[in-house]
Amino acid sequence: MNQKIIIFDTTLRDGEQALQTSLGVKEKLQIAFALERLGVDVMEVGFPVSSPGDFKSVHTIAQKIKNSLVCALARCTEKDIDIAAAALHLADNFRIHIFLPTSEIHLQSKLKKNFDQIIEMTTHAIRYARKYTDNIEFSCEDAGRTNIDNLCRIVEIAIKSGANTINIPDTVGYTTPYQFGKIITSLCNRVPIIDKAVISVHCHDDLGMAVGNSITAIQSGARQIEGTINGIGERAGNAALEEIVMAIKIKNDILNVYTDIKHKEIYRTSQIVSKLCNLPIPTNKAIVGENAFSHSSGIHQDGVLKNRKNYEILKPENVGVKEVKLNLTSRSGRAAVKYHMKEMGYQNNDYDMDKLYKDFLELADKKGQVFDYDLESLAFITTQKKYVEFFKLKNFYVTSNSAGIATASIQLYCGKKICTYSANGNGPIAAIYSALIYITKVPINLEKYQIRAKGHNPNTLGQVDIIVSYKDRNFHGTALSADVIESSVTAIINVLNNIWRSEQVIIKKFLKKYNHK
Ligand code: KIV
Ligand code: ZN
């Protein structure tokens, strides 16, 4: 029968401790609610002794979270344990997670203690913590590099002292799946009372093996997996929980285990963590990256349109991603172009496919990625208007100061007319954006603004890529310049021109409907 894997999330402890600026209580609470909706069994939400701020957030989260077990970290000292218990005590149910290094290198150069002293500290700390709760997890820090005889010894002592979850961290991401699996197997075979505790694993990704090691540990007997959303954490990060959870689901026939995670919440949770932690998700990241469900080459796109299973082992909607994306680039075939036209509601006889495909390839060669609104203009706007830039920058003047007030004065060609406006904002981008909206009267909402350096000193250029929403549709703009303010102005103008062209299609459709020329 399938056994359950307990999902232990440490985004708010191990993940958060690696951020450049720590999160406030409000942000942590927002992430905790997202994790609760996702259905994690245990969430480790801080290390209360480390700072008053950490104490406060653990204390707040402990009172609000009802459907996941809340846990906090403590070293093997009475003070750490008292403070962790004080932070947690208003929770309906809580766990104290105690850790102590067990590897020779940590003992010698960090703690300057011998293994007998470590055993003594472990026994005392676990017994002491039991006065607050009987839900105790004990972690052998750097277990991946700990002598296996010592590891078996301390695990047995920890269970005898009252720990009911034993965590085996590969703290420095040093092991390979085969090695790590063998550690778990040895514990199962050599610790006589191992069945009195749940074996947990906690893998770091220094060699890119955190997820592989966690999955092998399941096959060797681990029943709790620790990790973080998007794999955030110390150095190269922790095991990415979304990857482990989906591997468990997709490889159920081999692993014979399940989790209680609500898979459809995965994408939303990942986005929340990325935004609040200010850590962008790599485009090609498994499960939650922007390209995880995008198909680019003509052969793949054709294959997916015939049967999604040709190139998809999991359905995007199963992790809460709304749609499969067929990127339109010069590698796309006619099938992808037709698919996008159909998605926008056009029938084959509404447009000339041969001509559209020829124009599409020409534009894709120039522009890289083509969007659905580009296809529409190619299909329906006359050749003269196709590449017209209705809005053109004549001049701009932008100032900002340390009081947080910026002003943008912009002169813009709107067709043949020159329009001018000055606007304020709490930063230069906000001021530019307001001035351009006022002039063009196009009510756009800025959804994404990204600035990247291109090239090397002294010739670095600033590329600005933006996405705006307008009438329930996303439009993209991009610009490159040595002056990032100029790239910002021209990227917004670029998007406004894309919208203008798209509006020409709508006007044309309207005129056609009422038989005007
Ligand atoms: O990586 C590690 O060893 C840890 C422990 C505190 C569990 O984060
Ligand atoms: Zn860790």
TrEMBL record:
Question: Sorted alphabetically, which NCBIfam families does this protein's record hold?
Answer: leuA_bact, PRK00915.1-1, PRK00915.1-3
Subunit (UniProt): Homodimer.
Q: Which GO terms describe its molecular function?
A: 2-isopropylmalate synthase activity
Q: Which gene encodes it?
A: leuA
Q: In which pathway does it act?
A: Amino-acid biosynthesis; L-leucine biosynthesis; L-leucine from 3-methyl-2-oxobutanoate: step 1/4
| Domain Pyruvate carboxyltransferase as annotated: residue spans | 5-267
Among the Pfam families in the record, one is HMGL-like
Reaction catalyzed: 3-methyl-2-oxobutanoate + acetyl-CoA + H2O = (2S)-2-isopropylmalate + CoA + H(+)
Q: Please name the PROSITE patterns in this protein's record.
A: AIPM_HOMOCIT_SYNTH_1 (PS00815), AIPM_HOMOCIT_SYNTH_2 (PS00816), PYR_CT (PS50991)
Give the matching InterPro entries.
Answer: 2-IPM_HCS-like, 2-isopropylmalate_synth_dimer, AIPM/Hcit_synth_CS, Aldolase_TIM, LeuA/HCS_post-cat, LeuA_allosteric_dom_sf, LeuA_bact_synth, PYR_CT
Region of interest: Regulatory domain: 392-517
Residues given in the record as Mn(2+) binding sites? D14, H202, H204, N238
Its name, as the record gives it, is 2-isopropylmalate synthase
Tell me its EC number(s), please. Answer: 2.3.3.13
**What exactly does this protein do?**
Catalyzes the condensation of the acetyl group of acetyl-CoA with 3-methyl-2-oxobutanoate (2-ketoisovalerate) to form 3-carboxy-3-hydroxy-4-methylpentanoate (2-isopropylmalate).
Q: Which family does it belong to?
A: Belongs to the alpha-IPM synthase/homocitrate synthase family. LeuA type 1 subfamily.
Cofactor entry: Mn(2+)
